[in-house]
Amino acid sequence: MEDFIEQMRNDHKEFDHGSLEGFFGHAPFDLFNSWYSEAIRTAQLEPNAFVLATVDFRSQPSSRILYLKELLAEKFVFYTNYQSHKGKDLAANSNASMLFFWPGLQRQIRIDGNCSKVSEEVSDAYFSSRPRGSQIGAWASHQSEQLSDRADLEQRLEMYAEKFPTEVPRPPHWGGFELKPTLVEFWQGRPSRLHDRIVYELDENDWKIYRKNP
Ligand SMILES: Cc1cc2nc3c(=O)[nH]c(=O)nc-3n(C[C@H](O)[C@H](O)[C@H](O)COP(=O)(O)O)c2cc1C
């Protein structure tokens, strides 16, 4: 273990894949789309996975990985159980932060903003596109609640599979959130830790663009 820590301490990685120079666009969405498509095109592992950080009613932060499913009308959409830990956090405090990290491109994007539920129609449309197993799973899993025995989950899975032999309706407690960004930071690794950081910050209705020290 100590050897491993020593090894991490001595691992002085160089960041030399690219730079952020020139014109970035008036809003962060073109640059986000461009980096996101590049992550997909260059086959980065789990390109649409991001960390979602939320804060609960006691101001305790927590984070977990989710999948980005859509960028709809300049809002970042993900799907989950509304009664989960994160769902309850967002009901009490709708501010959240998303973080994408594509190590192969030496890039991260931080997106701070405010979440609200997407419309029932948007959630229905996405739910109906999911594989049947995931649809039944959304009914069976009481996400984030204690589970004393995995057999209970499997029993509920069977129960719902019987209850919905053909079409599976969307559970009322399951759906999408959309995060409306107020700040988006693009980070590109550069040599000697002198990384590029370009921030878009919403000021009234305009995006202010500035650089930050690394
Ligand atoms: C790669 C990956 C993708 C995930 N995508 C989702 C997702 O889109 N929605 C979701 O509810 N949970 C997803 N999860 C599970 C979450 O990380 C988390 O365990 C779950 O949502 C419960 O979180 P909570 O108890 O903090 O609410 C994913 C996990 C991984 C590792």
Q: Assign an overall shape.
A: globular
Query: What's the CATH architecture?
Result: Roll
Integer count of domains: 1
The CATH superfamily is Electron Transport, Fmn-binding Protein, Chain A
Mean pLDDT value = 94
Got a strand count?
Answer: 9
Q: What distance separates the N and C termini?
A: 31 Å
Present as ligands are: flavin mononucleotide
Q: Low-confidence stretches at least 5 residues in length (pLDDT < 50)?
A: none
Q: Count the helices. How many? A: 6
- The fold-level CATH name is Pnp Oxidase, Chain A
SS strand fraction:
25-35%
Computed CA radius of gyration, to the nearest angstrom? 20 Å
CATH classification, class level: Mainly Beta
SS-based class: alpha+beta
> Can you give the helix content as a percent range?
25-40%
The helix/strand series, from N terminus to C terminus, equals HHEEEEHEEHHHEEE
Largest beta-sheet characterization: 9 strands, antiparallel
What does this structure look like?
With 214 residues, this protein is α+β, with helices and mostly antiparallel strands. The protein is globular, with a radius of gyration of 20 Å. Strands 1, 2, 3, 4, 5, 6, 7, 8 and 9 form a 9-stranded antiparallel beta sheet that branches. It has helices at 2-9, 29-41, 85-92, 120-128, 132-140, 150-163, and strands at 49-55, 61-67, 70-72, 75-81, 95-102, 107-117, 174-188, 196-203, 206-211. A hairpin with a 7-residue loop joins strand 7 and strand 8. The longest helix is centred in the C-terminal third of the chain and has 14 residues, at 150-163. The chain has a single domain, classed as Electron Transport, Fmn-binding Protein, Chain A (Pnp Oxidase, Chain A, Roll), CATH 2.30.110. It binds flavin mononucleotide (FMN). Flavin mononucleotide (FMN) binds next to strand 2, strand 4 and helix 3.
